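Pasting as-is:
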Amino acid sequence: GSRAALGHLVPELGGARPASAMVDRARLCESVIEVLQRLGQWGPIVIVMEDLHWADPSTQTLFSLLARSSRPTSLLLIGTYRSDLPRRHPLRPVLAEVVRAARPEQVDLERFDRDRTAELVSAIAPGAIGGASIDEIHRLSEGNAFFIEELVAANLVGVMGCPKSLRDVILARTATLPESAIDLLRIVAVAGRSSPTVLAMAAGIDSVALATAVDELVTGGLLVVEGDEVRFTHELARTVFASEFAPETLTEIHGDLARSIAAVRPGRLGEIARHWSAAQCLRPALVSWLAAGRVAMADGAPSEAEGHFGRGLELWNVVDDAESLVGTDHAAVLVDAAAAAYHARHLERAIELAGHAVDELAGRDPWREGDVWLRLRAMYRFSSRWDECAWALEHALAVIPTSPPSAARVEALADAALGHGYAKRAKEALACAEEALAVASSLGDADAIVLARNAFSAALTIADPTGQSALEQARATVAMCGPDVSPEHTLIAYNGLTNSLALAGRYAEIIDVAAAGVELVQSSGLGGPLGTAMASYWLGSLMTLGRWSEAEELSHELAGLLAEASERDLFLYMEIALIRQGRLDEVRQTMERVRALLGQSDFWLENLCELGAVLVEFDHADDWRVDPTALVDDLLDRCRSGVSFGEWQLLGSGIAALADRVESADRGRPGNVTTSMAIANCWIDRVASRAERLGPEESLERQRALAELSRLQRSPDPAAWSNVADGWEELGMRYEEAYARWRGAEARLAGVGGRSSTARCAAAELLRRARALAIDLPATPLMQEIESLARRAGLNLSRTAMASEQQAPQSDELGLTRRERDVLELVACGLSNGAIGERLFISRKTASVHVSNILRKLSLDNRIEAAAVLHRLQAHASN
């Protein structure tokens, strides 16, 4: 499956170039990872990436993804980098993500002490340097291994007294070299790593003279041969040597290298362009930079392409008749640069460049202008700048001619339909989608028809309350995607179907569709937002269905595709599972990042409320450290003017947190119940007033929020929780079902009616089902809550009968029964008899009897003494 993406870069694989114009960077990295995983099944592999601080962005991305991928145990990944990186060095965020996600072993290489310095000196020059000189070498090098090597080499060629400057040390090593070797060294210093053939041509010497000079320099420890290339032994030595050249000498050498590389290695366009620029040969430099940018885009390196196009744009206005020279106009280069920045996820820069392009094209070429407006629309969309997205689309529709029919017109109309759909304007959405279908049909273009049908199914989602017609349309669109439909548009059809299935709550079906989409991405070499969407839908559906272990494994396998989702919208599926498993430390850093972003008043995403709900759930699990009121109020205010998902989910999490705070820390302060109720009712009124049609999942989130409200009112509704639990079960959402059944059992046990045999048997059955789900997930905190409720209520979850009725009470180290021990723990928390009864689902009188029995058994006079006994016992146990 990786051959399509890697074949044109590594011809030995025998793969054909992908059908798309460019290989997506994420897909390219994922293909490399797949190859390494396959090789790792056959035997041990060690991958070393040296000097990551000098690596280009694509190499840093590959390192990060490989570190975070699901690697075989036979694969060892090693990365080296300088620890004294500047604060804003681009490697720093990469390393932070690797440390957070992969938890690697980190090895700091300390400077050599005197003994280690002596060992290295002896290894380099056995017996040639005495102890006093070693002391001086250690003093001057300060234990830096490279400096030690250079000082030893200078000593061996007769430089006495150990020069005090590293520059002197390095230059001194060339003092005894013949002029031919020094000439070659100059070329290598400017070229960096290069092939002997290029060096010979640039130096103007034949292959025999080249071989002799290389041998001398390798023997002298200045150069090293790696494969078919030659380089300095150390980059610092090259930098020092190159800094000695006069500017005119450097210019001449750069020009010689540009001509040599162009003749011997014409595919190294970026290298050629760099040397032409340094040689002040601006016309060939401009041509080379633009060509290098196009090649880098095709090879899946958009960050590098963005840099190449940027340098070309810098030269455009200083090169005479640039348009004739490169065969295109300035606007076209701006569009290419914008595309590179967009695929590199530098969206603000992409928008800036595309904006300049559309200004230059205005009134000149409506077709090209319309195309750039459509590109801007996509850039605004993935920046969540919805008003500007609609503005760009309006311009595209205005400038793209209605006649003759065109695929660009179909794309603009289809996107307009989607935009109206987001804004819940069903009539306008259907009108645009129908017009798009008519234009696409007149063209007879299969890709355009798929695009229009996809928009039409999305419009039907708004117009049809059942969603069934939209789902049927989406299925039919996928079915028509045969060989005449491009992989890109087939992915669009898959994406439309997964959207329709998600709105219908049919997550099990999404898995198969999304998996097929990912397979298409992998076989075609595609990626980008749609490839990421397929991987996200697959992972998200597994998470939603409670298949957490399977999802965690998949997240490693699809790390390349999912990385872009993580950068764009804080992909939190795995974080939710970790929170619900009680693995809070693993998500704490991510949650703090979410908190910071949500705290920015100008931060906006359509899943803003979903992110807020996850943060509320995290805070609640983290010992209720943060009051959710301010966060929920703020997010609901910000969602008034934009499309947002998850408002009822946010309310359910927020009201649950309020209810739990009232039941625990705020117990005994009735004013908090009233205040919390007012807050919760205000939230519900604000969301309910929007009167939007709710899908199955949203409807259940609404019911859950109302059930939490009844719990906050201190009158939990068993029937409401039963309906919610049954609904989650129908959708296959196992964690939500387990939670609702636990709350339903709690509601049945509440009040006087909860003491009846019927209520207790029903509660035990609910808890039994909830615990089985929690164990299978696994959701340890929820399982503990379920077992705590069963224990406090005296229910035996392994049998239908209640433990309190069929088991003889057992005494603990204080001589108390299990029930008396539970009462004592609540006494130590300061609860009254009434509160204890409510907590343990017994009457106030029964709680009073238990307290009296405890005082009698422990020979105590009051509740304070009883609490002190328990605290002393717990302190002793902890010691």
